[in-house]
Amino acid sequence: MVNRDSQFFWDGTAAGELRIQRCNSCGALRFPPGPACQSCDAYDQGHVVAAGTGTVFSFVVHRHPPVPGKELPIVIALIDLDEGVRMVGELVGVDAEEIAIGTRLRVDFHRVDDDLTLPVWRRADEEGQA
Ligand SMILES: [Zn+2]
After folding, report:
1. What residues does the ion ligand 1 have nearby, CB within 5 Å?
2. What is the pTM of this model?
């Protein structure tokens, strides 16, 4: 999960930022991060901080089998970030029934321990922010 190519991402979540790899050569955004740009093959990779908003592209509701340390069901979504990249994320504070393709989401951060903070997603309108 954490390696040289994704270290910036986890440093970001620890700092409350959702970071997306951006090629310093051509500006292409990429998720998940990798060593070389998929557009121009450059190895000079930087990152941008995402706005932290996106839309549900698809989702699954995990009802079984049990997952250690997790309360079921878990809603896992493919999320289209407003920046144009797609990532997988867990939705929290939602009922599976209220999630649909196109539901607006806002990122939040779940601190697991000193070394790991996971991005999680909430409904964008849950906090009164449309
Ligand atoms: Zn590039």
Report:
1. 23, 25-26, 28, 37, 39-40, 42
2. 0.88
Beta strand pairing call for 74-81 and 116-123: unpaired
Q: What are the angstrom distances between the C-alpha of 19 and each of 8, 62, 108, 112, 116?
A: 7, 27, 13, 18, 15
- CA dist., res. 88 & res. 121, Å (int): 10
CB distance 95 to 79 below 8 Å = no
For each successive 10 residues of the chain (130 residues), what is the average pLDDT?
A: 86 97 97 94 97 98 88 93 96 92 97 93 72
Burial 4-16 (b: 16+ CB within 10 A, else e): eebebbbebbeee
Which stretch of DSSP H or E encloses residue 13? helix 7-14
Distance 5 CA to ligand 1 centre (A): 15
